[in-house]
Amino acid sequence: MAEHEHGLADINSSRYSGELWSGSPIAQEPVMVLAELASELNTATDFEALQQILARRLRWLLDFARCTLVIRANSEDTEYLVLEVTSPSKAKKIPPQKIPVEQGWSGTVLRDSKPYFIEDLAQLPSIISPPKEDWGIAPKARSLMLLPLRIGERTIGSLNFSSYTVGAYSITWLNLASLLATQVGGQIGSILTKMQLESAYEFRKRVMESATDAIFTLDLQGNFTLVNQRTAEITGYTVAELMGLPFLKLFHFRDATQVQTLLKATISQGVTNHYDVEIVRKDNSEKIITFNLAPLFIEGKIAAIASTAQDITERKQAESALLRAKVAEAANLALERQVQERTLQLQQALDFEARLKCITDKVRDSLDESQIVQTSVQELALGLNIGCCNMAFYNLEQGTSTIYYEYAISIPASQGRIAQLADFPELYRQLLQNQYFQFCSIAPHPKRGQVAMLACPISDDQGIIGDLWLVNQKDHIFNELEIRLVQQVANQCAIAIRQARLYQAATARVTELEKLNQLKDDFLSTVSHELRTPISNINMAIQMLKIAPTAQARERYLDILQNECKREIELINDLLDLQRLESSSYAISTEVVNLQDWLPSIIEPFRVRTQERQQKLRVELPPCLPQLVLNAATLGRILSELLNNACKYTSETGEIALSVSYAICSQQSQKLASMSIDKIGAVSAEQFGTVAPASLGESFSEANLRFRLHSN
Known about the structure:
Elements: E1 9-10, H1 14-21, H2 28-41, H3 47-61, E2 66-71, E3 79-86, E4 97-100, H4 106-112, E5 116-118, E6 143-151, E7 154-163, H5 171-210, E8 214-218, E9 224-227, H6 229-235, H7 239-242, H8 253-269, E10 273-280, E11 286-298, E12 301-311, H9 313-364, H10 369-384, E13 388-395, E14 400-408, E15 418-420, H11 425-432, E16 437-440, E17 451-460, E18 463-473, H12 480-547, H13 551-582, E19 591-593, H14 595-612, E20 616-620, E21 628-630, H15 632-649, E22 655-665, E23 670-680, H16 685-688, E24 706-711
Parallel strand pairs: 20-22, 23-24
Antiparallel strand pairs: 1-5, 2-3, 2-7, 3-4, 5-6, 6-7, 8-9, 8-12, 10-11, 11-12, 13-14, 13-18, 14-15, 16-17, 17-18, 19-21, 22-23
Helix pairs in contact: 2-3, 2-5, 9-10, 9-12, 10-12, 12-13, 14-15
């Protein structure tokens, strides 16, 4: 015997399943009684009849102390309905009642959906405590048989047999009881279905008869199949006259086509339709009804159409009268509103004219661009009472728009914001075409949120200058008067800004001419100084020649004299080169220069000069420098200018150092040469002078050397 977790033996275990379903012969008489019982069960229409049939027939089949039906009609129920089928004459009969689901052995059968029996209740394991009270078995019973009652796959209860005898179940008994449970379960399903249908019908009938609305159903041809009394009252027909009557007969011809379309849509698409329409009653009087058509599904298919309708004749008449009254009242209000709006428009137009005159007077008399912009933006923001106003200027060459000035009242400002015109083509394309527009932002701004904006170009006959932006709350719409005021202000600003810029350009031109004049004076002074310096050295060399004690000294002074003459000639050539540079007819020529041989001729005149001023000139020239391809004359002039400034601005007894070096750049795989002139002592870059490498024309040698010049 297989033991269940609750101590119950499972009939489906190996021992009993073999005996129960191996085809053991059953007595002919019990089989006939069971067949008659099954036939009689089919006539039971309720639980009481089922109980009486079982009580009358079961004693012929089985021997038991008590037999009960424990039924749960729905899976959501928390209680059983207990029906006692029969009991011994001395036992107390149990009236039909409800007990909790979990009470008794029947709860085990319901949970596991399997048949169980107990051969001896006294032999239950000590860990299992039998229920103190179980309405499904006889008191003091020794053996128990519980069979599940099923409807399809759902277990709805159990058929319970209890006996005072230990091991009272034979194979015949088990077979009969199992077959009986199958028959009883099927009939209980039929009874429950019938009860549900009757309950639904009674409920539907009560609902329809108590409804204040007309309720009816139509077949798929549009004929009445079910109506309530209210439907008859509304249509003027009797309930009997409406049955089978076409629904479309209730409507005027002009409305019948629309109603027929609704019927077809409900049947073909399975959708609910609603319609207000006028019907023709039996006595040819008319009523206005509102009705809906909804599909009724049976097994997933539309089988009929259900509808509810209301008589809205009085409501429509009242609405029509109210509508006429409202139309008259609305006409009066509209006329009054038009007068008020026209008055407000005239007052607003006068205010805007005054505001425009104020702005025009202020910007017309000003040549300060900043003042023009600030005045216009502030007056517009205050005059129109908007959250924010700004003016931006365009740089068409760079494709940018920069907010020049912004005046914010209630909306965060974005002063100085620079926008790329190409990033917002849908906006700036219209502005560049001298068109204004207004819109409301869809995506909220991080600071401003959603706002309404008006953009107006600032332009004149010479082209577009910039734009005016007005920003307000998202529900604001700029009217025609406001837009016209903004356009007029933009026109006045364009004229004033253009005048201010012309004035600023003229002022800047005068300043530039003055600066050029000063540069000319400085240039003449510098040229005079530079031309005088070699002449001074020539005079000094001539005087030294006169008193030179030796031939070697005279040779030296002759070299100096020759170099200074050469320097004078180079200065004059520089002036000529400058003239050619201005006329764009100067070509830079390059040559191969060896710094070890070339630098001493440049440095030598400055040795004499530094000696006269008791200055020290130190030259650091590595022995292995590469040859450079460059313009020697240009480099010579640069070195001479820097050495001249170094001598000029270095104090007496000071030190000047000229160093040349080169290194290999690992990142670019190139050899870089650099030259620096260091003045030991403080001197500003403006005094000393700085020359960029571009002055040398970026010259290169065969070793791909780059020449760099550093000055400190």
